[in-house]
Design a protein that fits this description.
alpha/beta, four-stranded mixed sheet, globular, 17 helices, 11% strand, 2-enoyl-CoA Hydratase, Chain A, domain 1
């Protein structure tokens, strides 16, 4: 018999969620989103459950994101309703995790990207292991940083969240703790002992502190001054100009500008706007904003061209339209953020959180 895609069970004082699609790097499906939602609902008022602990099976990835290939194929077939259903329920789950009234402990080892970040970074306790590798690489496939990134990326120090959103750069365990993406670093070999302590009922704060170790140094934080200066422009084009000006003295600035120029200009403009607005939003407004964007983006060109180039044909030569940052129409960007018809807006359940 085939294994379930996600395993949700109670053990001792913990509700355990194990993402169980290792062959697909634990990429999320609608069925997984629904199973996690049901478990969180059941455990919220269960006096036996003191905390929720989330892990990814397989050792390679916590979760590499949503099932992008499936979403691409649905859109190509014109089945936008299926796409929208996934994003609607995924975003509601992301918000639920953010507001969950019990400790939600994500033990993150390996790749954590996109939708995987949504079911971990939004939790109250994010623990980074040795293989932790966080990224929001969406602008490279004509998409945008979603799953609550509108809320959490702008709240990272300086312009580091903007940097992660515009480049898709990877943050390692030391970066995660230094930037606030993770609460603590625990060596991977101690993950099972930490999980066992939580199952045994040890308070989360006590257990995390007991198993934590000093994190590795943060390479990203070491470039903070270049990031803040280079990405302080009023537009993507101005940021690129600042990075170009700094490139003579900073190889990091040159590489950042080079990387940004490979991304979808439309996606860069959307992400830049998100990061500028998100710092003043609450989680509800951030999730509604993302839903407005995705409801329009899935009917456009960039996402399908990006997935074709990176995931399907693997030629890594996307033909973006428009092709350059200077050609992006700001009025067109405005349209992604505009309210949807009332019946189409993202709504949240009245009960609980």
């Amino acid at each position: 018999m085939s294994q379930p895609e996600v395993i949700c069970e109670k053990q001792g004082a913990a509700g355990l969620i194990r993402l169980n699609r290792p062959q697909a790097l634990n990429a999320l499906t609608l069925g997984m989103v629904r199973a996690m939602s049901r478990a969180l609902d059941a455990w919220e008022h269960d006096p036996q459950v003191a905390c929720v602990v989330v892990t990814g099976e397989g050792g390679k990835a916590f979760s590499a994101g949503g099932d992008i290939r499936l979403l691409h194929d649905q859109g190509r077939a014109g089945d936008h309703a299926a796409q929208i259903a996934f994003w609607r329920e995924e975003y509601v789950l992301n918000r639920r995790i953010k507001l969950y009234p019990k400790p939600y402990v994500a033990l993150i080892d390996g790749i954590v990207m996109g939708g995987g970040a949504g079911v971990s970074i939004n939790g109250s306790h994010r623990i980074a292991g040795d293989k932790f590798a966080f990224a929001m690489p969406e602008v490279g496939i004509g998409f945008f940083p979603d799953i609550g990134a509108t809320w959490f990326l702008p709240r990272l120090p300086g312009s580091t969240g903007l940097y992660l959103g515009l480049t898709g750069a990877r943050a390692k365990a030391g970066d995660a703790v230094a930037l606030g993406l993770a609460e603590a670093y625990v060596p991977s070999g101690q993950f099972e002992a930490l999980r066992a302590a939580l199952i045994a009922g040890e308070p989360v704060e006590v257990a995390v502190k007991r198993f934590s170790a000093p994190p590795p140094a943060s390479a990203i934080l070491g470039e903070r001054s270049v990031i803040d200066a280079g990405l302080s422009g009023a537009s993507v084009a101005e940021c690129l100009a600042r990075l170009d000006a700094a490139a003579g003295e900073s190889a990091f600035a040159a590489e950042t500008a080079k990387t940004m120029r490979t991304k979808s200009p439309t996606s860069l403009a959307i992400a830049f706007r998100q990061m500028r607005l998100g710092g003043a939003m609450d989680i509800d407004e951030a999730m509604r904003t993302e839903f407005r964007i995705v409801s329009r983006l899935c009917r456009g060109h960039e996402f399908y061209e990006g997935v074709r180039a990176v995931i399907i044909d693997k030629d890594n030569a996307p033909r973006w339209s428009p092709a350059s940052v200077g050609e992006v129409d700001e009025v067109a960007v405005d349209a992604y953020f505009a309210p949807l018809p009332a019946s189409d807006e993202l709504a949240f359940p009245a009960r609980g959180a």
